[in-house]
Design a protein that fits this description.
single chain, about 500 residues, alpha/beta, Alkaline Phosphatase, subunit A, nine-stranded mixed β-sheet, four-stranded antiparallel β-sheet, about 15% strand, globular
Amino acid sequence: MTFDRSKIKNVVMIMLDTLQFNYLGCYGNKQVKTPNLDRFARQSVLFENAYSEGLPTIPVRRALMTGRFTLPYGGWKPLSGDDTTITDILWGRNVQTALIYDTAPMRLAKFGYSRGFDYVDFCPGQELDHTTFADMPLDPALKPEDFTSPSMVWDKDGNLIDDDSKQLLDEIGCFLRQMQHRRSDADSYVAKVMNRTEYWLRERRDKSRPFFLWVDSFDPHEPWDPPSVWEGTPCPYDPDYEGNPILLAPWTPVEGRISERECEHVRALYMEKITMVDKWVGRILDSLREQGLMDETMVVVMSDHGQPMGNGEHGHGIMRKSRPWPYEELVHVPLLMHIPGVQGGQRISSFVQNVDVTATIMDVMNLADTEDGVSDHGMNTFGAESMQGESLLPLMRGEADSVREYAIAGYYGMSWSIITEDYSYVHWLVSEDEKNRADCVEGADKEMSEEMWTCTAGAKVQMPEHNELYDRRTDPFQLNNIAAQKPEVAEELLQKLKLVIGGLRTT
């Protein structure tokens, strides 16, 4: 089968929140079982160096929906009237659009991330939405302290350590209230999202019309509650563990709060949850195959970001994305893409960014060169002219070796990083004067004071004082800062980073 745009009718975008790239078999993990995604990877194109640029949850969705970088412009904020989204472009065209999701930050009041979809199905209860259930009676047998480590919440005298301890127990309690009747993984959030997706694909959509379907699963985001937690059985990835299951860890540094053994168990629960997510995503992939849609449907599977998971290479000393630190474990994401007529089984090493996914979707749908205008009926129409991404089709079809020489990542007004083949460099925006210079982000200090720059309760804006340089070939997880040993390389990357951010701000 050769590539032919006219034969590709549909696009399915599957977003899996907080899925670290190196926890998948197809990305080289020998321990975690992900048979469905591994199979899909063998039939698709795998991008080895895909990076999200502006973090975390909301900025990533904004970049993907608009095809524009967010890092130089704004962080955790609503879609604006000036933003042109995929669904804005598809409005008035013969494409039905659907959003099926449980990612509560997308549904925040006045944020507008369901804008323009013909069909919207939200599954309530995930983080930021779970307080809706705070007054629901909780089974007395379920105590929040039984689902975390005692050392995370109590001091040696049996008192709460601090306000973070209380917040952690409150967070676990809200979660238990809504999930206390769970009996199997079919009651999990990812199962609900994928079952509703299956319903739309088989029963709800107009099968005579093309479609654009965005599926957004908050799993495998924490809480780390795979089947073993609810069944009271040993975690298959850590069967010898004898402590409490740890649904959530505090947003403080792990040192002195959670032992390395407990960190290992959290990572095991995360692995088990990823295996569960793989199972339910497999149902959708199988459904597309059974309905004969794979030969006429572009399918993207990716994550918005990874997850700090403890000390060293696992998370630089934190558990959960509770600091604006754009290290590898957070910004490097899995990206798998199936396009009919494009050879499957490829592994592409070129740097790509999340905005390139949007550009590729527009290219496949033959909308890449569309412009804003007015319809014959006098209604405004929108095109892809303002998008900043690069289509990945030339890479996938062997017409180009790369589309980018580097990737950027970071948190608006807090941190920037640049990743090249040889080095990764992190620039911390710790100075108010620096943040407001012309070559930085004007007004970024206002974002710094926002309470919500992430969706992790209790997260703190704390950053190192000195910029960091890492040898990407020998130190891929950024443990040995060599900025002092190679100041000329650090300065070169800093100036390049400033030029990139400045250039983006003018386009």
